[in-house]
Amino acid sequence: MLRPVRPDSAHVPSAIMAIASRMGIGSALLAAALLAACEGGGEGGAGGEAAEGGGPPAGSPTFYKDVLPILQQSCLHCHSEGRIGGFSLATYDEAKTQAGVVAAVTADGRMPPWHAIETDLCQPPYGFVGDPRLSDEAKATLRAWADADAPEGDPADAPQGYEPPPVDLPNADLELAPSEPSIVEGDHDQFVCVVYDPQLTQDVYVDGVNIAPGNESVAHHALVFRVDRSTADELSGGNERFDCFGGPPGDLIHAWAPGMQPLQLPATVGMPLSTDQVIVVQMHYHPTGTSTEEDASKIQLRYTEEPKWDFTIALPGNATGAPELLPGPNDGASPQFRIPAGEKDHVEAMAIEVPQLPIELPILVVATHMHYVGVDARFWVERSNPGPGEAESECFVHTPAWDFNWQRGYMYNAPIEDLPTVSGGDVLRLECHYNNSMSNPFVVKALADQGKAAPEDVVLGEQTLDEMCLGAIGFLVPHQ
To answer: Are 398 and 378 in contact (CB under 8 A)?
Structure first.
């Protein structure tokens, strides 16, 4: 779904432009805010009050005192009436029926959705902004509550009424809405690109981006692109929307998922947006299967003064041959990107040398990207000349349970001056694992959507049954 983006010669030093031509770098925001769909840290208490009469067992957590605070902090963004979660956990009666499910999916990490995981193979240098994973205490509380038959407790112990975080971008300078809504129906996911024209009279720098969903029951996630107006006109035929999957129409600048906060870049960081560009939003809709819905999601932008840093994205990977594509299983005489039908653990590995740089580049955001056949991706660097305190080999991010439906970028929770860096001569490495068999439920669904019954060989490409192996580095370049 992602591709290298074009460099902006007006804002990237000439030495960096040479890098861009080799690595696919351009001024853009990575999907830094495409974080957890249910954001928040979720800290739950461990003990309840002693039972009296017909109350809960002694020491058991209760809904109002112990469980509801966890749900409010980490789950209700999605699991409230009319939200994408599919069922509500906002009241005791609703949550009790799902107690066992909630305990199970939080215990194994499936919820809240978050896929950048520390593993034996990967210990990132810092934590990530917006990590919503529950503490061990909170998980134990949910399990103990379910095991005790979900006692209600005293409503007087309930926290204050739940107020979802604001969906709007603070101090937005511009809000754009489509002239007509998208129609969402049927039982197959839909990918629709909507063109929003800011009609700028002068170039600006963007430091905040947000999608304000019009119908959260069907709006699953969105990718936001900065696109030349002429390109958008060509792709859309002059219309406001067009069907789209795979190849992006321009430079990725943001991504959204239900429950997340608006993207707000660090102070002194911005992204140029020119008068001859428009915004194209690829909406991923998940129909209810039972009703016809409408969505008219809005895009919000905030501007800043000329920044100190331009945020730039590199998308290494998707190598088609040697030397970047490394020899692997099932290859012929030379490396090739091909995932044979029926293979349950096929690996494609790539090594991309960073061109010579005049400076070290701080890394703010990292990500991996695959399609439906992908199951595990790891992205790291091997430094040719590590500086003081730098590791020779450092893992950026590992997504060992990749899920196309929850793709996102991960922003390091560290000051700019402490961010990890890449330098000329370093080698960026990717390892992507794939399951191209009927034991992969995503493959089963993708085949069914195409009217096919058995796996086929998968190659590199942008269609539903093609694959990718991409890393993403969102780094900072001094503004010129």
So the answer is: yes
> Is residue 193, in this structure, part of any structural domain at all?
yes
pLDDT at residue 428 greater than cutoff 70: yes
CA 154 to chain centre: 38
Q: Which domain holds residue 198?
A: 27-34+167-307
Give the C-alpha separation, 418 to 413, whole Å: 10
- List the one residue out of 102, 95, 115, 106 whose CA is nearest residue 134: 106
Cα(361)–Cα(416) distance, integer angstroms: 11
Task: Report the distance separating Cα 214 and Cα 248, nearest Å.
Answer: 23
Q: How far is CA 34 from the centre of its chain?
A: 4
How far the first Cα of the chain sits from its last, in Å, is: 30
Query: Per residue in 217-264, pLDDT tens?
Result: 888 778 889 999 999 999 999 999 998 876 678 888 887 876 667 888
The whole-angstrom separation of Cα 424 and Cα 381 is 12
Is 410 within 8 Å of 35 (Cβ atoms)? yes
Q: How far apart are CA 198 and CA 232, in angstroms?
A: 13
Please indicate, yes or no, whether residues 197 and 292 belong to a single structural domain of this protein. Answer: yes
Report whether the peptide linkage leading into residue 112 is cis, meaning its omega lies within 30 degrees of zero.
yes
What span, in angstroms and rounded, lies between the C-alpha atoms of 156 and 369? 46
